[in-house]
Specification:
Layout: E1 7-10, E2 13-16, E3 29-32, E4 36-37, E5 62-68, E6 77-86, E7 107-108, E8 114-115, E9 126-132, E10 141-149, E11 161-165, E12 171-174, E13 183-185, E14 187-192, E15 195-200, H1 207-215, H2 225-244, H3 250-264, H4 283-300, H5 314-318, H6 324-360, E16 365-370, E17 373-379, H7 380-404, E18 407-408, H8 425-437, E19 442-443, H9 447-452, H10 455-481, E20 492-493, H11 511-534, H12 545-569, E21 575-576, H13 578-586, H14 596-599, H15 601-614, H16 618-625, H17 630-636, H18 639-642
Parallel strand pairs: 18-19
Antiparallel strand pairs: 1-2, 3-4, 3-9, 5-6, 7-8, 9-10, 10-11, 11-12, 12-13, 14-15, 16-17, 20-21
Helix pairs in contact: 1-4, 2-3, 2-4, 2-6, 2-8, 3-4, 4-6, 6-7, 6-12, 7-10, 10-11, 10-12, 11-12, 15-16
């Protein structure tokens, strides 16, 4: 821009004064006071770093800025056209040009997420930015200090000081702030089939993973540990099998096995950075594992990450005899099996707690309710016994569906034919994985089917959906039975675990039941995604596997936590309000049902109608009408006997 031209912030709206789109030149100072002034003419002859502004200067709704360097002078400048935005409180850049790093900070979208970059500034707060000594024409460094104001960290750190060196290298220095660990990050050059990529120097992943980070900054989520664990187990087993078949050098295999063992043990978790919303099938996931294990194996063998002679290759060695198309379906199955016992355990825990309450509440006779209207008596113990059995039945469904996940099709490679895999690879992998996992795995019987069909994972997902249906019903019953207390049923007392209102003192809400409702709704949504993704398979492959994997792991994770909390913080501490339960039952005109056999349905209906209209008891109305003696009425209206069924006053059962 020419001297005096500025990008100003007014009322939160930024604008380009005079529509000047010339290169923003070397200025002595960036000021953020009543506006943002980027003054002095000239072009950047290198890279430039942009930062946000504090809450005194809000910049938003600028749609595009262009500031290109002069390639003839070796500069690269910045390009903020369409890909980067000023939104709310923040400004960022996307690097473009010859020697600029491909990973920029991107622009903020409505959610504050970096658009086109690699870093996540979700819910970004505001920055205060100042800059000095920004003469870039001589290749000097530029210093921007950022005062953190409620900014959530992006990646694993909050940016406090960025140091941009113009030329071929860029170093970022992050200083410790509020417990965020200091980190210095340089870059190394990695290559894949598309060319060179700048990868963070310390990252164990490589070029393909870095491209994925660049291409898919979608949700900020990463793969679940269960999936990473399963993939690492597969890679470990493959290295062992290929070594034993004489296809993989024993030294290379040993290093891959050691690297995989580290990942299986939970190390290097921060290296698995692929968003679940990514390219189809899961190639990105697969290559993330391949690259991490290859680079870690090279380190184990004594090679630096940037050593051009490092021997272990992610495709040729770690991925030997494998394809994304057979490893990802296998990992979905193994990752699910990894946590299924934990899930079954918490379901058992809930069923046991409900069974204990069934015993405790066995003598609490209460009014049954159908259509939310009064019905014949039941015991609270019977209600809870039914809850427990329903949960047990759902537990059996989950376990049965999980058994079908033991059929694995590893070795089908790209389409199910097993091309590029040894004839013995598949059966040996089944045996090796069974040994490593302590699981009774078996061959799928048809490797083509294993690759085409996601029916087994969808069936498992559906079993959890059915569990959610049961749990939602139980949670709703808890909320209804605990309603009031003054104006509701108040037959069940839930533990008071937290205040229920910010304005109404003394209010206690059924928060654990509400939580379980929400968790179940979320999980049922996940199941719907799995069902849609499973039916989206085409010909030899289902390319929707990444979201199937993510959602099944999400379902299990949420269910394990939600059921545990509901059981321990709610069910275990339940108490029955016996007085209220007995009081409601005493007013229940439907008790006349027990008299049907002796006074007839129509007479019973007339008695019930008069009882409800006058407030008189069933016994009083029957006596007034002369339908039965007092002794016979008492015998037939034994509410405890009614809960046992049968014909009242006639032999066994209720008699």
């Amino acid at each position: 821009m020419e001297a005096g031209h500025a990008v100003r912030a007014s009322g939160g709206l930024g604008e380009l004064v005079d529509g000047n789109r010339r290169g923003i030149g070397s200025q002595n100072r960036l000021r953020a006071t009543n506006g943002v002034e980027l003054s002095k003419q000239g072009r950047f002859e290198g890279q430039v770093f942009g930062d946000g502004f504090d809450d005194q200067v809000t910049i938003s709704q600028i749609t595009a800025i262009e500031a290109r360097g002069d390639a003839g002078k070796g500069g690269v400048g910045i390009d903020l056209r369409e890909r980067a935005f000023f939104d709310g409180a923040g400004i960022a850049i996307v690097y473009a040009g010859q020697s600029a790093l491909e990973w920029g900070f991107g622009g903020f979208t409505d959610a504050g997420r970096v658009a086109g970059g690699r870093q996540d500034l979700s819910d970004a707060g505001a920055h205060q930015a100042t800059a000095d000594d920004t003469d870039t024409s001589n290749g000097h460094e530029v210093y921007f200090s950022a005062k953190q104001r409620g900014v959530r960290r992006f990646g694993s750190f909050v940016l406090l000081l960025a140091r941009i060196r113009y030329g071929e290298r860029c170093n970022m220095v992050c200083r410790q702030h509020k417990g965020i660990t200091a980190m210095t990050q340089g870059f190394r050059t990695e290559k894949d089939s598309l060319g060179e990529v700048q990868v963070p120097a310390a990252a164990l992943y490589g070029a393909q993973t870095q491209r994925v980070v660049i291409n898919f900054p979608i949700s900020g989520m990463r793969p679940y540990p269960a999936f990473v664990w399963a993939m690492a187990v597969i890679k470990r087993a493959a290295a062992e099998v290929n070594r034993d078949l004489g296809l993989l050098d024993s030294t290379v295999a040993g290093a891959i096995i050691s690297a995989a063992d580290e990942v299986i043990a939970g190390q290097h978790a921060d290296q698995f950075v692929v968003d679940p919303f990514q390219a189809g099938a899961g190639t990105s996931h697969n290559m993330n594992l391949n690259e991490v294990l290859a680079n870690r194996a090279n380190q184990i063998l004594g090679y630096a990450l940037d050593d051009t002679k490092k021997p272990v290759n992610p495709n040729d060695h770690v991925n030997m005899a494998q394809s994304t198309n057979d490893t990802i379906p296998c990992a979905i199955r193994l990752g699910t099996l990894w946590r299924v016992n934990e899930l079954l355990g918490v379901i058992d825990h809930l069923a046991e707690a409900l069974e204990a309450k069934a015993v405790e509440f066995a003598d609490v006779v209460k009014s049954g309710r159908t259509h939310l209207q009064d019905a014949v008596p039941v015991t609270m113990g019977q209600e809870f016994g039914a809850y427990a059995l329903a949960v047990r039945n759902d537990r059996e469904r989950v376990a049965t569906a999980a058994e079908r996940l033991r059929r694995i099709g590893i070795g089908g490679t790209a389409t199910g034919s097993g091309l590029n895999a040894h004839d013995e690879y598949h059966p040996r992998m089944v045996v090796t994985l069974s040994r490593l996992l302590g699981q009774n795995l078996r061959t799928s019987g048809n490797l083509f089917e294993s690759m085409q069909s996601m029916a087994d994972p969808a069936d498992f997902s559906a079993s959890i959906r059915t569990l959610c249906i049961t749990l939602t019903r139980i949670a709703n019953d808890f909320r209804l039975l605990a309603s009031g207390p003054a104006t509701g049923l108040d037959e069940l007392r839930l533990p008071a675990v937290q205040p229920g209102s910010s304005i109404m003192p003394g209010k206690i809400n059924p928060v654990l039941a509400e939580m379980l409702n929400m968790a179940c709704f979320h999980v049922q949504g996940c199941d719907h995604t799995v069902a849609l993704a499973a039916q989206a398979g085409q010909l030899e492959l289902n390319v929707m596997m990444p979201i199937i994997s993510h959602n099944i792991n999400e379902m299990m994770h949420v269910m394990i936590g939600a059921i545990t909390a509901f059981t321990d913080r709610c069910v275990v501490g339940l108490t029955a309000n016996r007085e209220k339960a007995h009081g409601w039952l005493a007013k229940n005109a439907i008790l006349v049902t027990a008299l049907n056999r002796e006074i007839g349905y129509l007479n019973g209906a007339a008695v019930a109608k008069e009882s409800m209209a006058t407030g008189k008891t069933i016994k009083e109305v029957v006596l007034e009408k002369g339908l039965l003696s007092a002794e016979r009425i008492d015998e037939l209206l034994d509410v405890q006997a009614m809960t046992k069924g049968g014909i009242m006053g006639f032999g066994s059962g209720g008699g």
